Amino acid sequence: MNRPRGLLGRAMLVSLALLLSGAPADGAELKKITFGYSTIGAMAAGSWMAKEIGAFEKYGIDAELIYISSGPVVVQALIGGDLHGGIAATNAVIAAVLRGASLVSVVSTANRPYHRLWVQPEISRLEDLRGKTLGVTRYGAVTDNLTRILLKKNGLEGAVNVRQMGGTMEVGAAFQHRQIAGAVTSTLRVDVPMRMLVDLAEMGIQYSMDVIVVSRDFLRRNPETVEAVVRAYTEGVAAIHYQKEKALKAIAQYARLREPKKIEEIYEDSIQYLERVPRVEQEAVFSILEFMGKKGIPLETFADNSIVDRLVREGFIDKLYRKR
To answer: Cα separation of 187 and 172, whole Å?
Structure first.
């Protein structure tokens, strides 16, 4: 396995070196990987829960979970070799593959948009956004893509400014200081009044939110490791349904939240939106391609569903959801 290098800097390498020096659990040799996630919302909750319940270790993986502020940066880290796998915005992964990156998605966390448009309280309709600014984490991130799809569908393309803020917390800070009129995101961490203007899940479209992505070379060289990650993640998602207290604990820890209401909101979104069978669905990807003007590109260009399909055939996923 290649050692991560470059993009995440010396601090990450030191952290990884310390991780590698640890003794394997129960005398068994665990495969050590670094796994990034680009959201502190529900789309990462399956990986958090997998870590909380020991599912990675159960399937032979010693996973170090690292938060990275946006999907495009996770993609850069994967391309640069800093990560072995990660959760990133599907549209950012597709854009990178179209530019020649040798990446492949093996899981889709959700196949419909679960973000909302949050706005300042004086804004009561979409038309009120004309001439104003919406914040996104980064250009090319899922927040950016969904913002532009929403504006286009409502005849506001070019009439509303879109500004890159850097990350989820930066978007919240900009909203709190009234530097932006609103933002498309799952939840907005602010201590000021706000209004939820649009629930994008009600737009009636399929849209692949985030994917677990690896390099094609890593999949080719380490198929058992990638399958172990998919098994652990899928078990983590199932455990959210049956082990609420542990799920709330994991959400609080990884999302760095103390407010019970916000923790509960992420939990409820996880239950409602995370796919039990996490296939990368063709229609959910094609809606992204259509927006990019790239219709007709085969799903296999970006995704490999063979692991998830095998888990379905084996009955692995059904067993996770049988009444307990």
So the answer is: 9
For Cα atoms 107, 139, 96, give the angle at the middle one, nearest 5 degrees.
45
Query: Which residues does 178 contact at the CB level (< 8 Å), separation at least 6?
Result: 120
Measured distance CA(167)–CA(70) in Å, rounded: 6
Is residue 109 scored above 90 in pLDDT?
yes
pLDDT in the model for residue 292: 87
Within the chain, what is the greatest distance between any pair of CA atoms?
62
Task: Supply the DSSP symbol for 292.
Answer: H
Q: Tell me what the mean pLDDT of segment 10-39 comes to.
A: 61
Distance, in Å, from the CA atom of 312 to the CA atom of 306, rounded to the nearest integer, reads: 10
Q: What is d(CA 237, CA 243) in angstroms, rounded to the nearest whole number?
A: 10
Judge contact between 107 and 227, C-beta under 8 A.
no
pTM of the model as a whole: 0.79
Q: What does pLDDT average to over the chain?
A: 89
